[in-house]
UniProtKB/TrEMBL annotation:
Its EC number is 4.2.99.18. This is Endonuclease III. Residues 101-248 form the HhH-GPD domain. The gene is nth. Keywords: 4Fe-4S, DNA damage, DNA repair, DNA-binding, Endonuclease, Glycosidase, Hydrolase, Iron, Iron-sulfur, Lyase, Metal-binding, Nuclease. Residues 28-45 have a biased composition (Low complexity). SMART domains: ENDO3c, FES.
Length: 312
């Protein structure tokens, strides 16, 4: 069974969970950047309203944006050297099933649900033969359990009948399975087969727009825009780092700007809480000193394992 964690060697030790790194509050572009002509080197400059500049236009060339984006990735690698897929899995089939179940719920809830599921139906053949009512009852905690049960039964039957019970390692084959789109396919390819891919979930899309890497909202267009900025070899780990940051610090409704270690690179700094002490109280998972989402996290994860279903 092919399996890859997709992690790179850590250059630095993980930050202390209860002590966020210091914040440098300055815009990624210099004050003179707003005066640069539209024909700046690297392409036409763009102008967007950046909270980091107090509402003043954020102007940078395409080349400057690419450099800022790549620097952001490098600094995220120092903040999250342990970034990893947050779904518990032991083989490609388990990862595929867990990813399908993760729609419209948390990875934690999926991780608390899958042990019983995989104990009863460990292979595609077993799951394809599962009584729908029994399957629905097991996966009920993940929400939308009827639709998810239909997808799991369909993809398991397809794996049994078309792929000899094995999860395929090609994008076209994966997206041909019931309930499997590009996002799910790239999660499986990147983390079970070591094939680079961008996982454009809600966190990823939200952050790359907040960082002004793209203004696209359609996931496939976001994927194409970000893929043009980074080398292919970086795609899988970039996805993990961005999603980690979105879940822990750069939240949707109230980002913890005052505790953000990459605030100096963010054109949207100030959209959230800028007071350092108040911002630290918004941190989640290991950054806030709380358990993570995995019941069985990797050895290098600095936080605490998540509790099992029903545990206090």
């Amino acid at each position: 069974m092919a399996k890859s964690t997709g992690r790179e060697p850590a250059a630095k030790k993980p930050d202390d969970a209860g002590k966020p790194p210091p914040v440098v509050r300055e815009p990624a572009a210099s004050p003179d950047a707003a005066k640069r002509p539209a024909a700046a080197k690297g392409g036409a400059s763009t102008s967007v309203q950046g909270a980091a500049l107090g509402g003043k236009p954020w102007r940078e060339s395409r080349l400057a944006m690419v450099r800022r984006a790549r620097r952001t990735n490098r600094e995220l690698a120092e903040v999250y050297p342990y970034a990893h897929p947050e779904l518990d899995f032991e083989n490609p089939f388990q990862l595929l099933v867990a990813t399908v179940l993760s729609a419209q719920t948390t990875d934690l809830r999926v991780n608390q649900t899958t042990p019983a599921l995989f104990a009863k139906y460990p292979t595609p053949e077993d799951l394809a033969a599962a009584p729908p009512e029994e399957l629905e009852e097991i996966i009920r905690p993940t929400g939308f359990f009827r639709a998810k049960a239909r997808s799991l039964l369909g993809l398991s039957a397809a794996l049994r009948d078309r792929f000899d019970g094995e999860v395929p390692g090609r994008l076209d084959d994966l997206v041909s399975l019931p309930g499997v789109g590009r996002k799910t396919a790239f999660v499986v390819l990147g983390n079970a087969f070591g094939v680079p891919g961008l996982t454009v979930d809600t966190h990823f899309g939200r952050l790359v727009r907040r960082w002004k890497w793209t203004e696209e909202t359609d996931p496939e267009k976001v994927e194409a825009a970000v893929a043009a900025i980074f080398p292919k070899k970086d795609w899988t780990m970039l996805s993990h780092r961005v999603i980690f940051h979105g879940r822990r610090i750069c939240h949707s409704r109230k980002p913890a700007c005052g505790a953000c270690p990459i605030a100096h690179l963010c054109p949207s700094y100030g959209e959230g809480e800028t007071d350092q002490e108040k911002a630290r109280k918004l941190l989640k998972y290991e950054k806030g000193g709380f358990p993570g989402q995995r019941l069985k996290p990797p050895p290098d994860y600095p936080g605490r394992p998540a509790p099992e279903l029903g545990a206090r």
